[in-house]
Design a protein that fits this description.
The protein is mainly alpha-helical and 362 residues long. The protein is 61% helix and 0% strand. The radius of gyration is 25 Å and the shape is globular.
C-alpha cells in the first residue's frame, strides 16, 4: 500500500508516501508501455568492480617514477587500449546514472500507493527511540515480518498479539521496511492488518490515547503531516477511537494543499468504516486535483482496507459514473481500473458491460 510507510502527478508520493498521486491499487499501477530491460543492482555493482579493477591495472605502479611528460604520445595498441578503457568507464558511469535515476523514479512512483515513505525517518518523527533497541527483539520482529511477507497467517496472529511490546525495543531497518511493504501489498486483509500494527510499533506509536494525541500533533506540523495522516488511518484501523480518527482526517479533506487532502483520503481508506466510503466517493468525483481523485479511487479499490462488501457499495457509484459526461477521461479510466480490482474482471471502459456485471451481482 504506501513504503509508511509517503506519496502525484500534479504534485512534486509516497504516500507513506507526499501523497496524492497514488496508484489504483496497493500493488497494481496503470498500464504503461513495455520498458527495455534494466540492469539489476547486482549487475551495476559488478560493472563498477570491473571498471575499478581495470582502472587500477592501467595506473602506474606505486613508487615508480612517473613517465616523462615530454615523451612522445603513445601510439598503436596501447593508445587504443587507453581510449577503450576511458570510453568504457564513461559508458559505465552513464549506465549507472541512468539506472539510478530510473530506479529512483520507479521507487518513488510505487511508494505513492502506500502514501508514506518508509525511508524518511518517520520513526524519529513519531518519537520512537533507537537507543534502547534490543538486538534479539529486533531479530525476532524481523523474523515474524519475514514470515508475514510470505503469507504466514500464524505469524500475523503473533504480530497482532506481541507487537505492542516491540515499542522501545525495535526500530525500522531496511529489512523490516521491505517485509512490511510486501505484507501491505497482500490481498488478505488479516495479513495487511498485522502489517499496519507492526508499522505502528516500529514507529513507536502506542495503540492508545497517547499514541493518538502524538499523531494529531504530528499532523498539525506540515513537515510530518503526510506520515501522521497515514499513521492515523493505521491507528484507526486497529480499533483506536475510530470516530475521533475519522473526524480528524475529515478536517484535512478541505485543506488547500492537494497533498494533504490526498493523505487524508489514504488515512480514511485505511480506517475503512462504512461512513468513509461516501467521503472518498465525493473526493473522487469533486476534488479539483487529479491526484486526489486517483488517490480516492485507489483507496476504494485495493489500497484501502475495505471489505469486498464495502467496495461493492463504492462500485455502484463507479459503474454509474462511467458514462457520465461530467467526469473527465482520466476519472473514467480510474473508475474502470478500480472496478477491475474490485471485480477481478476487465471490461475496459465499457459502461454497459460494467452495468450488466453489477446488475448480475445484485
Amino acid at each position: 500500500m504506501p513504503d509508511p510507510l509517503q506519496p502525484t502527478r500534479d504534485l512534486p508520493k509516497s504516500s507513506a508516501t507526499a501523497t496524492d498521486g497514488a496508484q489504483l491499487s496497493a500493488t497494481a499501477s496503470h498500464n504503461s508501455p513495455q520498458e527495455a530491460p534494466q540492469p539489476s543492482e547486482v549487475d551495476v555493482v559488478h560493472a563498477l568492480v570491473e571498471v575499478e579493477q581495470a582502472t587500477k591495472k592501467s595506473a602506474a605502479p606505486e613508487g615508480l617514477t612517473p613517465p616523462d611528460r615530454t615523451a612522445p604520445p603513445q601510439s598503436g595498441p596501447s593508445r587504443t587500449l587507453g581510449v577503450i578503457l576511458y570510453l568504457s568507464v564513461g559508458f559505465a558511469l552513464i549506465m549507472l546514472l541512468g539506472w539510478t535515476v530510473q530506479n529512483g523514479a520507479r521507487r518513488i512512483h510505487s511508494s505513492v500507493s502506500s502514501i508514506t515513505d518508509w525511508g524518511n525517518g518517520a520513526g524519529v518523527q513519531s518519537g520512537a527511540t533507537t537507543g534502547g533497541t534490543s538486538s534479539s527483539q529486533q531479530a525476532e520482529a524481523e523474523n515474524l515480518l519475514g514470515r508475514l511477507a510470505s503469507g504466514d497467517s500464524i505469524a500475523a496472529d503473533q504480530i497482532l498479539s506481541e507487537s505492542d511490546r516491540w515499542i522501545g525495543g525495535t526500530q525500522r531497518t531496511a529489512k523490516a521496511n521491505q517485509f512490511v511493504n510486501v505484507a501491505l501489498n497482500q490481498r488478505d486483509l488479516h495479513l495487511r492488518g498485522a502489517a499496519l500494527q507492526a508499522t505502528l510499533a516500529l514507529d513507536g506509536v502506542s495503540r492508545d490515547a497517547d499514541g493518538l494525541n502524538r499523531l494529531e500533533l504530528a499532523a498539525a506540523n506540515r513537515n510530518t503531516r503526510a506520515w501522521a495522516l497515514w499513521m492515523l488511518g493505521a491507528l484507526g484501523n486497529r480499533g483506536v477511537e475510530q470516530e475521533r480518527v475519522v473526524q480528524t482526517l475529515k478536517r484535512y479533506l478541505d485543506d488547500s494543499d492537494a497533498r494533504t487532502r490526498s493523505g487524508a483520503v489514504y488515512g480514511l481508506g485505511l480506517v475503512a468504516t462504512d461512513e468513509t466510503v461516501p467521503m472518498l466517493l465525493e473526493r473522487f468525483r469533486n476534488d479539483p486535483s487529479a491526484g486526489v481523485q486517483e488517490s480516492a479511487a485507489c483507496s476504494l479499490a485495493e489500497a484501502g482496507m475495505y471489505t469486498h462488501e464495502q467496495r461493492m457499495v463504492a462500485a455502484a457509484s463507479l459503474v454509474g459514473w462511467l458514462d457520465d459526461a461530467g467526469l473527465s477521461t482520466p476519472q473514467k479510466e480510474w473508475a474502470a481500473h478500480a472496478l477491475r480490482d474490485i471485480s477481478g474482471l476487465n471490461f475496459g471502459n465499457d459502461a454497459w458491460a460494467w452495468q450488466q456485471w453489477y446488475s448480475g451481482t445484485r
